[in-house]
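User: tokens in, sequence out, please.
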């Protein structure tokens, strides 16, 4: 009887749509999903770092592209340090809408100090009413105990992202660690990312060039960057002098 009551209380504490969710969230690019053994692990922490501060928008775009794969049930909480908001700005409603994320699916929170950001992330992960949590922090290391606490808090089937402005050198219990930067494009207006999977607890690592597809509303694997020559037509043999 006590076990049944405990299970009932746990079910009531979870938000709608959390129970019964699959164990992975496919990214939609077969080459990446194969490396991830099906997709991003739900109920786990993932680290996404820009290769440099100027590339932070690329890292944000990659994180949001993963989170939006959970639409239309997405309930995203984005927590940023005050300094991050001052230097990078806040998410813009019309931009999110164009990206395929409804503004009402997002709650933004600012934290004065890093310890407040980590605490807010942990609380958001444990509340049971969210499907994804993004914590955006500036450069610097994170205490190993705090990382383990975030990983444990994410085990409630929530997708957790720690977004960093530069490649970290500290140890981590995250399921994956990514380095993301902007990549040159041969088409005007097309957005390309250079994405590296540098740590993967479920398999190998790899690197890809991704391109945003307006028609698909997601990143796709970029085609060859150089134009290919057309095959030569059949013509009579010529003797070279």
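Assistant: Sequence out:
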């Amino acid at each position: 009887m006590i076990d049944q009551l405990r299970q009932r209380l746990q079910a009531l504490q979870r938000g709608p749509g959390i129970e019964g969710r699959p164990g992975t969230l496919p990214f939609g690019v077969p080459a990446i999903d194969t490396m991830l053994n099906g997709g991003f692990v739900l109920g786990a922490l993932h680290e996404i770092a820009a290769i440099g501060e100027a590339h932070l928008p690329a890292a944000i775009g990659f994180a949001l592209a993963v989170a939006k794969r959970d639409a239309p049930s997405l309930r995203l909480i984005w927590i940023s340090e005050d300094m991050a908001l001052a230097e990078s700005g806040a998410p813009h409603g019309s931009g999110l809408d164009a990206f395929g994320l409804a503004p009402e699916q997002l709650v933004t929170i600012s934290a004065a100090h890093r310890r407040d950001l980590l605490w807010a992330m942990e609380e958001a992960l444990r509340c049971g009413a969210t499907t994804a949590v993004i914590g955006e922090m500036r450069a610097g290391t994170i205490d190993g105990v705090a990382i383990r606490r975030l990983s444990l808090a994410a085990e409630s089937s929530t997708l957790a992202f720690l977004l960093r402005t530069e490649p970290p050198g500290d140890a981590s219990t995250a399921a994956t660690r990514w380095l993301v930067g902007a990549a040159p494009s041969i088409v005007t207006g097309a957005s390309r990312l250079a994405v590296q999977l540098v740590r993967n607890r479920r398999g190998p690592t790899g690197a890809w060039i991704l391109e945003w597809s307006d028609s698909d509303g997601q990143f796709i694997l970029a085609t060859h960057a150089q134009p290919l020559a057309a095959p030569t037509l059949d013509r009579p043999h010529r003797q070279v002098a």
